[in-house]
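Before a colleague's protein record goes any further, I have to sign it off. My question to you is simply how this chain folds and whether the tokens agree. I do not need a full report, just your reasoning and any doubts. This is what I was given:
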Amino acid sequence: MPSFDIVSEIDMHELTNAVSNANRAITQRYDFKGTETTVKQSKEEVTLISESEFQVQQLLDIMLTELVRRKVDVKSLEQGDIKPNGKAMEQKLLICQGIDKDNARKIVKLIKDKKLKVQSSIQGEQVRVTGKKRDDLQAVMAMLKKEEFSVALQFTNFRD
């Protein structure tokens, strides 16, 4: 029986590439010359550090541009507030992975409301959709791509 999974994941390799590209762009910008401005990445967050709040906002624009260029969905990052940290200002971007329960229920309800001949079930931080026909599954994918969710959705593990 054909099936696929709906997940919300971020490609960590592409995120690392975007961070290094943003750091490279900082060194080439005139408005960041002579400042202690960096973008740091850990496993669960990206930290933007600069000397003023305005520069952190400029750094955020650079980072979001690089993420879009690397085809990383911006919805996968949750922006924190700009806070002082010693002499510098910093902003944390939390990396969000997995579909939370509320969004998973919303996805399942949306699929059931369309009355397609598929079954959907929540399995941890993903939603599995199964059906008899491949066309029904593709219709579900198309319908979910049109809808607006607070998380980035990817379709994986398509089995025929």
In short: The longest strand covers residues 77-85. Strands lie at 3-7, 38-41, 45-50, 77-85, 88-95, 118-123, 126-131, 154-159.
